[in-house]
Predict the 3D structure of the following.
Amino acid sequence: MVCSYISLVVRMVSTSVKKVVFKESNTTEGFSKSELSAWADYERSFGEAVPKLDVHSGFWSFGDYELVGHGKVTDSSCGKFLGFRGCARTELHDKTTLDGVNYSGKVFVRKVHCTCHKPTCPICYKHGWAVREAKMIETRLVECSKRFGQVEHIILSVPKLDYRLTLESLRSKAVHAVMKNRGIVGGVLIFHAFRYRNRDILLKGVFCPRGWYLSPHFHVLGYIMGGYGECRSCKFAENETFAECRGCAGFEGRTRRCFDKDGYIVKVKGKRKSVIGTAWYQLNHASVKRGVERFRVETWFGICSYRKLKVTSELRKEVCPICQHDLERLRYVGVKSFICDKSSPKYNQDTFENACEDGCVVWSAFELERSWQR
């Protein structure tokens, strides 16, 4: 069998590549030999081919799927700088924050850009579409947490036998069988078709280069029946071994028993510091299906589905991080130049600027004049 099935990298590999041997980890993580072997497969290799599979592939794509942000720019206005919003109430900024910084005489400034909010747009996907979707995810999960407790970050890895299933079939199986059997009762499902190998390795004598490679899996922000607190505080959780958990009634016991039947490895990550931050990061390297105009990267299910959880959408207010007042449009009349290109490594969307330059006030709030206003 050949490695052409996973030819996901378009760069040529030099014949003088160093021989790198992957060393097996000594950790057992409480899995059996077959479980460890399966986990290693998901994480490190796709050297064995499934025959007669005709797909288009590239560094960031495989078959019907590609990473977000790798489509065509929607139009010329994408990423266009529109102006500044912020807070010029300097009299309310004479405060010292917890990090020891005093913002007396400072204006909070946010750069505003045009965005198409499409996941395929290489300009707008990261700071436009992903931000908007992450805010929506946080809004729904905050409401759901009032009734169902702690949000957990769960990773569901698809076994090779199911790689040929359509995305719709994979989602259905993940929701109605794999997660249901493990007591995951609801949440949002984010599909990833790829993983990233951060170094070249040799696996079973086959060279596997660094880069993105096919590895369908789902990231879930959701809720576990009975919670995950018991497993997180378990004595076997310290080294993530869970060696004696197979007979336990908790999640770690359930997922090990279910693995023997369905072959899916389902893991729970650590406590979330920020739901919106986790959602934004996972959306940034999610996958989309080619040729689908309004493809939904995230899917709600169970107790969080649109049918069961009704959340009234409210316009999320933009407020000053110092005084909490609503942001306004700002006019700048100074001489300082600003980096407004979002692709620049020196770009910062939010900054604090001096209200005065050479003794003159250079920042002021204003309202746009409407043609229908007299």
Remarks:
- The chain has two domains: 3-71+115-296, 81-113+315-366.
- Confidence is low (pLDDT under 50) at residues 1-57, 370-374.
- The first helix runs from residue 33 to 44.
- Residues 3-71+115-296 form one domain.
